[in-house]
Amino acid sequence: MREVFFAGSLPRTDHEADSCEDRHAVRRTPSGLLRAAIADGASSTLFSGLWAELLTATFIEDEASEPTLPDLTGIRRTWYDTVTRQPLPWHLQAKLGQGAAAAFLGLTVTDRGRWSALSVGDCGLFHLREDRCITAFPEEDPDNMPALPSLLRTHAGESDYLHTIARTQTGDVIAGDRFLLMTDALAAWFLREWRREHAPWKWLEDIRHPSVFRHRITQLRRMGRLVEDDITLIHLRIPPTPTEAAP
Amino acid sequence: MYVNSGITRNNPSCFLFIIDQSASMGQQFGDRHEPHTKAEGVSDALNNLLRNLIITCSKSDGIRNYFDVGVIGYGETAGPAWSGPLFGRELVPIRDVAQFYTRTVERQETVKDPFGGESAQTVKIPVWVEAKARGSTPMCQALALSYEVLKVWLLRNQTCHPPVVVHITDGEATDGNPAPLMAALTELRSVNGPVTLFNVHLSSRREATPTSFPDSPEGLPDAYARTLFERSSYLTPYMRTVAWDHGVPLTEASRAFVLNADPTLLVLALEIGTRAGHVR
C-alpha cells in the first residue's frame, strides 16, 4: 500500500505561484517511524516560506516517537544566516527585526500502533477510520478556529513558552486508517462540513495527482467555500504491519 | 453601507494626504525644547508613516503594490508635494514610493536578532516629503485637485477598498469655502463604500485643548471647527478597532476628526487613519 497517498501545496491564487508560503514534508525514518509535518508561513512576515521549510524538514528528521518540536535554536540560526547572506534593500532590512512566523503541525505514527501529534496554530489533523472521522485536532469546532493563532517565530518571544501554546494529542492506529493534514483554510472548510454531518474527506481522499488537487481546490474556491489562502494537504494511509501483511 | 473588503496587489487601495504648507505651519509645534515647527512635525510624521506602510507591504520577493499613495500640498502653490524623483506625480504605486525617495537621514534604532539579542544600529530613514511653510492657505484648490485625482483613480479601481484621504491643516482656507469640496470628496465611492475623509487640525497654541474623534459637535469652540467636524467621515469599524488597540474607546458616531492636535495626537490620528488592514 502506498502510505503517502498525496502531499501537495497550492498558492492562494494561480497568479502567485511563486509566493506560496506553505510547506510540507513526509518521511519514513530508519527506525520505522512515519513522520509528517505541515507549516503555514505567515504571509505578513518575511521569509516565512523558508522558516516553514526548516520547521518541517527538521521535524521529519527526528527519531523521537513522542510529540516534540524541532530545536528552534539551531533552525533560527540557519534562517538568520540564510536571509542575511545577501545585502537587503532598506525596507526588508527594516522588517527583518520582526522575524518570520508559521503555524505548525507534526504527526508521528509508530509501527506499534500509536500516533502522536503536536500543533502550534491553526493547521488541522483528521484521523479517519473506515467511513468516519474519529479525531479532529487541535480543533473540532470551526467556530473555535483562532483569528490570531499562536505561531512559531524565528525571534525569541512567545515561541519560547511552548508549553503554553503547543497542543498535543495521541491515539491508537490500525491498518487502513488514514490521516489528513491540512493548513487552516482547508481545515476550516473540513470542520464546517463535518459539523453539518457531511463527509468532507470524500472530496479529498481520492486525490493522487497535483492536477486533481488543483481542480478540487479551485472548485471549492469558486463555490466560495475557502478563504483566499495557500492550501496544503497531506494524505497518509496506514499500511498493515509486516505481521498483519503476512499470509 | 461600508464593506471592509480585502486589499490585494491586483485590487489596491489608495491613501491621499493633503497637507497645509502655508506660512503659519512655520510656528512652533508641541513642547519640544529645540525649535520644531508644525511643518517639520507633519513631514516627520508623514515620512515615518510612508516608511511603515512600505514595510507592511514588503514581502520576501519584493513590495506588494497594495496601495497607491499621493501627497498634495498647499501654500505658495497647490499641487503634488513629493520632493525628489517623485516631484510632480499625483498617485504613486507604493512600490515606486519605496524606490524613489529624495534623501535619507540616519537614526539610531534597536534591532532584534532571533537569539534574544538586541543591538543599536544606525539605520537610514528615507525622506519623501520636505517641510515647507510659505504662502497663504489655498485649501480649496488642493481639495479640488484631490477630488479630480481620486475621481479618475476610482474609475480605474471600482472594486477597491475605499480610499482614505487625510487632510492636515492648522488654519482656515484663504481661497473660499472648503465645505462643499470636502462633501464632494466623501461622495466619491467604490463599490465597497465611500471615501473616508480624515481632518486633522493642528494646534497653534500650546494651551489649546485637543479634541479627538468627537461624536457630536457639542463643545467645539467655533463655526470653523464645527464645519470640519460635519465634513469629516464617520470612522470605519476597522479604524475604531485600531483606536481601541490604542486605548481610545469610540462610538459608531465618532468622526475622523481631531482638533488642536499636538504631535502625539497627530501620530495617533495618522495611525488610526492609515493602519493597513486586511492586506492579503
Describe the structure.
The complex is a heterodimer of chains A (247) and B (280). The longest helix of chain A has 14 residues, at 48-61. Chain A has 247 residues and is α+β, with helices and mostly antiparallel strands. The mean pLDDT of chain A is 90. Chain A is built from eight helices and eleven strands. The two termini of chain A are 15 Å apart. With 280 residues, chain B is α/β, with parallel strands linked by helices. Chain B contains seven helices and 14 strands. In chain B, helix 1 (38-57) packs parallel to helix 7, helix 3 runs parallel beside helix 4 (179-187) and helix 6 (237-245) crosses helix 7 (263-274). The longest helix of chain B has 20 residues, at 38-57. The radius of gyration of chain B is 18 Å and the shape is globular. The model of chain B has no long low-confidence stretch (mean pLDDT 89). The A-B interface holds A 12, 15, 18-19, 43-44, 46-50, 73, 76-77, 79-80, 89-97, 99, 154-156, 228 and B 6, 10, 51, 54-56, 58-61, 63, 98, 104, 111-116, 123-124, 126, 279-280.
